[in-house]
Amino acid sequence: MKELKERILRDGKNLGGGILKVDSFINHQVDPGLMDACGREFAVRFVNVSATKILTAEISGIAPALMTALHLGLPVVYARKTKPITMPDQVFLTLAPSHTKGRMVELIVSPEYLAHGERILIIDDFLATGSTIHGLVRLAQTAGAAIVGIGALIEKSFEGGRAALKELGVPVESLVSIQSMEGDSIVFGEG
Amino acid sequence: MKELKERILRDGKNLGGGILKVDSFINHQVDPGLMDACGREFAVRFVNVSATKILTAEISGIAPALMTALHLGLPVVYARKTKPITMPDQVFLTLAPSHTKGRMVELIVSPEYLAHGERILIIDDFLATGSTIHGLVRLAQTAGAAIVGIGALIEKSFEGGRAALKELGVPVESLVSIQSMEGDSIVFGEG
To answer: How many whole angstroms separate alpha carbon B11 and alpha carbon B8?
Structure first.
């Protein structure tokens, strides 16, 4: 997606160690027009998977997932990382390593909003190693829901997440794909 | 706002102790169409305050703030509760008591995205005691930015937050106002 690629080249920063800083338009400050355009693009790509719900992880998945949900007319659930007092005692919980936090984080979804038979489209900001997305997949599968598609704004293809998701046999779409981040460069791949 | 009031009556739950559960459409599962309508309504109410940026707090402020930002054509910044590795060492940080967590939480904004002279519209999900919103006000003021308006989806008027914000002399708008939550009731006030 040209608009996102250009924005990353203009405002993104390669901080080294595979960390791409996109805090000025996705992760801390958010450009709502850009997120809306990304949501519209995901809606086009996933219009045929018959999803019934979108699933993401707080915090930075919320903006792209919400905009995708708006364009597909679906509810969105974001997995919580701490259990709020409004959630029932019995929950779906899994652990996933956090790249940017350097530790395991919990991903928690209430059984009230993830049910047997639902068709889940996962939307997140990054597809890197795929560990957060795999956590969301486990939550959905535990609930007896089916995964029907996976979308990420930015794929870091050199981290191998796509291969790890292949066994699911569902479409995996990223709006831009970064092939390498040697030195302070950001090199996009095909597509 | 009629649509939000009806939704709270239909799907909200008074859990006691002043806790209103809105997890099925705002705080865990999100209804994007409803959030879009709320964002449009905030945009109408604040169109004349000449805001340059919207400020909210992660996590549950993100959805209404993002939709308001979309309709006003402004960037939105969400204060983080933990400092990510992409943020500079020098930040704006304040502490605010969390109603639903029962402890103090940090609210952190990078000086990169909150600057002297900006005109800040604060949008959050709840206005209860006003402590989170006051934390956001302190962050903006420390940065040398002006507060030009405050909006909340749901005001719990019996918790006194509005009075505590009066000294700011800016418009405070809530889309629905709850007057009391005795027993398991939810009683709306005027407006």
So the answer is: 5
Closest partner residue to B58 among A24, A59, A101, by Cβ? A59
The residue in chain A having the minimum alpha-carbon distance to the alpha carbon of residue B113 is A29
At CA B175, angle to CA B173 and CA B180, rounded to 5? 100
The answer to whether the Cβ–Cβ distance between A113 and B73 falls below 8 Å is: no
The neighbour count for residue A162, using CB atoms within 10 Å, is 17
Question: Burial code of B102-132, b = ≥16 C-beta within 10 A, e = fewer?
Answer: eeebebbbbeebbeeebbbbbbbbbbbbbbb
Counts for chain B of helices (H) and strands (E), in that order: 5, 11
Write out pLDDT tens, residues A127-161.
999 999 999 999 999 999 999 999 999 999 999 99
Rounded Cα distance, B121 and B15, in Å: 30
Residue pair A119/A87 in contact (Cβ under 8 Å)? The answer is no
Q: How much is the pTM? A: 0.97
**A window 1-40, beta carbon within 8 A of B:** 15, 19, 21, 23-24, 27-33, 35-36
Nearest to B155 by CA among B170, B177, B129, B133: B177
The two beta strands, A92-98 and A76-79, are unpaired
Contacts for B48 with CB less than 8 Å, ≥ 6 apart: none
Helix (H, G, I), strand (E, B) or coil at A149: strand
Q: How far apart are CA B5 and CA B11, in angstroms?
A: 10
B21 has pLDDT over 90: yes
CB contact at 8 A, A184 and A14: yes
What is the tens place of the pLDDT at every residue in B24-65?
Answer: 999 999 999 999 999 999 999 999 999 999 999 999 999 999
pLDDT of A191 higher than 70 = no
Distance CA B103, CA B43 (A): 33
Interface pTM (ipTM) of the complex?
Answer: 0.96
Q: Is B175 on the interface with A (CB under 8 A)?
A: no
Q: Which two tokens stand for residue A182?
A: 């040697």
What are phi and psi for residue B124, nearest 5 degrees? Answer: -140, 170
